[in-house]
Amino acid sequence: MIGPVLLGLTRFLVGGHPRWIGSRPTMRQRIYFANHGSHLDTIVLWFALPDALRATTHPVAARDYWGTGRLRRHIGVDVLNSILIDRSGQGPKEDVLRPLHDALDLGRSLIIFPEGTRRTERLPGPFKAGLYNLAAAHRDVELIPVYLENLSRAFPKGALIPAPIACTARFGSPIGLRPDEDRSAFLERARQAVVDLAA
Amino acid sequence: MIHDRSFLLLVGGILAFLAVASLIGWVLARRAADAASRATVENLNARIRAWWVMVAVLAGALALGWTATILLFGLLSFFALREFLSLTPTKPADHWPLLAAFYVFLPAQYVLIGWDWYGLFSVLIPVYAYLLLPILGVVRGDTEDYVLRMARIQWGVMLAVYCISHAPALLLLPIPGYEGRTPLLLVYLIVVVQLSDVMQYVFGKLFGRTKVAPRVSPSKTVEGLAGGVAAAVAIGTALYGLTPFTPLQAMGLSAVIAIMGFFGGLVLSAAKRSMGVKDWGTAIEGHGGVLDRLDSVCFAAPVFFHLTRYWFTP
Predict the structure, then answer these.
(1) ipTM of the modeled complex
(2) Is residue B10 a part of any domain in this protein?
(3) Looking at residue A136, which CATH number applies to its domain?
(4) Residue A100 domain flag
(5) Which of residues 68-87 of B touch A (CB under 8 A)?
(6) Does residue A77 sit within a domain?
(7) Which GO cellular component term is one of those annotated (chain B) (predicted)?
(8) Which residues contact A147 (CB under 8 A, 6 or more apart)?
């Protein structure tokens, strides 16, 4: 019930239609990684994917936001199929990424926001290492850069309700982790792939 | 209204016009030889298909009554405003004025029209929104490009909400001897302004040589303008039976509608150009966005409304 309402509201208020620029929607196992400007990012990117892909794709969401409150938790976990992770920084790093490795081992696709937090700028900031760690451990998974346009204008940090500003999700060409590429070079290349879609 | 002879003639005329257009489009599509002309014809046919849909939607809303018609224009305003403000680089600090524009002033304007509260709907946006939007915009204390940002939001609300809302406001004009027929006045405005647009396009494609404003809009030509306005005035005069006007008055008012409509298209072309885009959006296949189709209505509706109100209501 909430799913279709959420989809209808998203389309009516912000659109959020996909633009498949460098790739096509296919059933291949993928990690979609995008810039992060708004709590709507997860919803918009999720609904930009065709139905069939949504069934096997899990957004990676912060437990401290999507895990709190009954409605939000219902949307996050039951509607959007999210995997909630702790970003409090407590506990060993491997444990934070464990559920993501598990999901990838099961053949699932992921949606991640490698900046780790929302930003107000148009272009993404530096990426955290998680994307690299996932890519290095699952080399056969396609890495698709996604640029989410206008989300931080439609629903900026601190806002209570979104404004109707038209948003789009642009999907780029897959980037792969090169055999001898180090972490910072890869993360910068991945960030650049998102930046290139913003032009 | 349904039994009105001139109304039935108009409906028949519109359907025949669209049928002929579809037929011509079909013939042209079979004849198109090279890639460039195929693209032009494909766009033409997309436009004609969209016209069928637009005519059906407007006719449906009018058949359902004035509430549905006002609601339809409210939705069109919503999408037009969304197109305008999405292309305008607003900042997160503009969030409060944006919320007020979309969720307060837009619905309030149409509710006031529904209530027929002329004294308030005619000043709501030029006075209250004009002052309240920059007040809300100053709350976050972001002064970078403040004047530009506020001016853009005010412009968007004026064009997409205030100006467009004057089209359905025609329904409520208390014209003596014309009671119950005001939906025809709205139909008249839409037919004249859109026919002017369409015929400007047709005459421009057929005979266009001299560009009117090459730096603003490469597709607008003197030949297109003259042919389009002449055709719109001819039809607007012939349709005087739908209106409370005499043939001469209908001629004058349809000339005002067509010329204001032309300038609406020109001004919003300049706005698009300054924002670096060709179309306002992708909502209507072949035409672009909602605002691409309503740019002429934005400029024609308020002037037509006020001239009619001034001269034809007590």
Answers:
(1) 0.88
(2) no
(3) 3.40.1130.10
(4) yes
(5) 78, 81-83, 85-86
(6) yes
(7) plasma membrane
(8) A34, A35, A169, A170, A172, A194, A195, A197, A198
- Among A157, A159, A165, select the one facing B86 at the smallest CB separation: A165
Residue B107 lies in a domain: yes
Q: Is residue B145 part of a domain?
A: yes
User: What pLDDT digit, counting tens, does each position of B156-199 carry?
Assistant: 999 999 999 999 999 999 999 998 899 999 999 999 999 999 99
Domain span at residue B82? Answer: 67-172
Q: Are A103 and A83 in contact (CB under 8 A)?
A: yes
Q: How far is B213 from chain A (nearest CA, A)?
A: 29
Q: How far apart are CA A193 and CA A33, in angstroms?
A: 10
Residue B287 included in any domain: no
- Coil/strand/helix, residue B93: helix
Query: Using the beta-carbon criterion (under 8 Å), do B90 and A153 form an inter-chain contact?
Result: yes
- Closest-approach residue (CA) in chain B for A37: B92
Lookup: tokens for B229 = 């306005």
For residue A167, the chain B residue with the least C-alpha distance is B86
Interface check B161 vs A, CB under 8 A: no
Binary contact (A150, B86; C-beta < 8 A): yes
- Per-residue pLDDT at A48: 96
User: What are A138-196's pLDDT values in tens digits?
Assistant: 999 999 999 999 999 999 988 999 999 999 999 999 998 998 899 999 999 999 999 99
Does residue A20 sit in helix, strand or coil? strand
Chain A residue numbers touching B99 (CB-CB < 8 A): 161, 163
Cα-based torsion angle of the residue sequence B303, B304, B305, B306 in order, rounded to the nearest 10 degrees:
50
Domain that holds residue A119: 14-198
Q: Nearest CA to B159 among B294, B8, B3, B298?
A: B298
Q: State whether residue A153 sits within 8 Å of chain B by CB.
A: yes
Closest CA to A111 of A167, A23, A169, A30: A30
Q: Cβ–Cβ of A163/B98 closer than 8 Å?
A: yes
Look at chain A and report how many structural domains it folds into. 1
Inter-chain CB proximity A166 and B82 less than 8 Å: yes
Nearest-angstrom CA–CA distance, B195 and B209: 21
Residue A159 lies in a domain: yes
What's the CA gap between B170 and B168, in Å, rounded?
5
Q: Which residues from B are below 8 Å from A159, CB to CB? A: 92, 95
The count of domains in chain B is 1
Residue A144 lies in a domain: yes
- Per the CB < 8 A criterion, the answer to whether A164 and A14 are in contact is yes
Q: Does the beta carbon of A189 lie under 8 angstroms from any beta carbon of chain B?
A: no
Distance from the Cα of B99 to chain A's closest Cα (Å) equals 6
